[in-house]
């Protein structure tokens, strides 16, 4: 994990060294609404319990490019929570999206790009969790935002590409074998960013 953080920091530093006039870096944070693969099935639960699947993220970003097109690498610590049959599945991970963005009109911009995720920890109520199939996975971010000087707000959708499961044994109910949870992210992410 230390190597991953060091490599990401060096990449951000390298991007910063070749930055152009519209380039910079900053901090960001916000809320995640996570479903881990189950948006449509969890829509009714979200209406009844809107805080049930809410998580958060904090991190840093770099922004490099000309006035119209930019590249924005990010490094974030993300904590997500999902509901599975009344039990909470918590996951902590490092996210490293690399976004390509286009400034449209005024403060409005759109962006998309791959997101690399490294799972740090998982926890599920009332069960014993075995290892995650893959600690490292790849997903996609797509979204839009507005910038007001140094302050920015964006909303994005993230979906994991890599199939990634956790097997577990339920200690509350007698079952005939281990069960599985799909840990691919499927979430909406609302962020507030501040350029430094």
From TrEMBL:
<dbReference type="InterPro" id="IPR011250">
    <property type="entry name" value="OMP/PagP_B-barrel"/>
</dbReference>
<feature type="domain" description="Outer membrane protein beta-barrel">
    <location>
        <begin position="19"/>
        <end position="162"/>
    </location>
</feature>
<protein>
    <recommendedName>
        <fullName>Outer membrane protein beta-barrel domain-containing protein</fullName>
    </recommendedName>
</protein>
<dbReference type="InterPro" id="IPR025665">
    <property type="entry name" value="Beta-barrel_OMP_2"/>
</dbReference>
<dbReference type="Pfam" id="PF13568">
    <property type="entry name" value="OMP_b-brl_2"/>
</dbReference>
């Amino acid at each position: 994990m230390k190597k991953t953080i060091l490599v990401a920091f060096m990449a951000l530093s390298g991007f910063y060294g070749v930055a152009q006039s519209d380039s910079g870096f900053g901090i960001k944070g916000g809320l995640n609404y996570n479903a881990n693969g189950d948006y449509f099935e969890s829509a009714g639960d979200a209406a009844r319990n809107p805080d049930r699947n809410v998580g958060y993220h904090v991190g840093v970003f770099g922004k490099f490019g000309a006035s119209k097109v930019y590249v924005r690498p990010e490094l974030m610590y993300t904590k997500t929570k999902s509901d599975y049959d009344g039990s909470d599945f918590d996951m902590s991970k490092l996210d490293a999206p690399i976004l390509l963005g286009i400034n449209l009109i005024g403060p409005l911009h759109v962006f998309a790009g791959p997101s690399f995720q490294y799972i740090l920890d998982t926890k599920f109520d009332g069960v014993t969790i075995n290892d995650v199939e893959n600690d490292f996975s790849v997903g996609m971010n797509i979204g839009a935002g507005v910038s007001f000087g140094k302050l920015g707000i964006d909303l994005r959708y993230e979906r994991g590409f890599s199939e990634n499961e956790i097997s577990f044994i339920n200690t509350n109910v007698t079952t005939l074998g281990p069960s599985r949870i799909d840990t691919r992210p499927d979430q909406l992410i609302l962020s507030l960013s501040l350029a430094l």
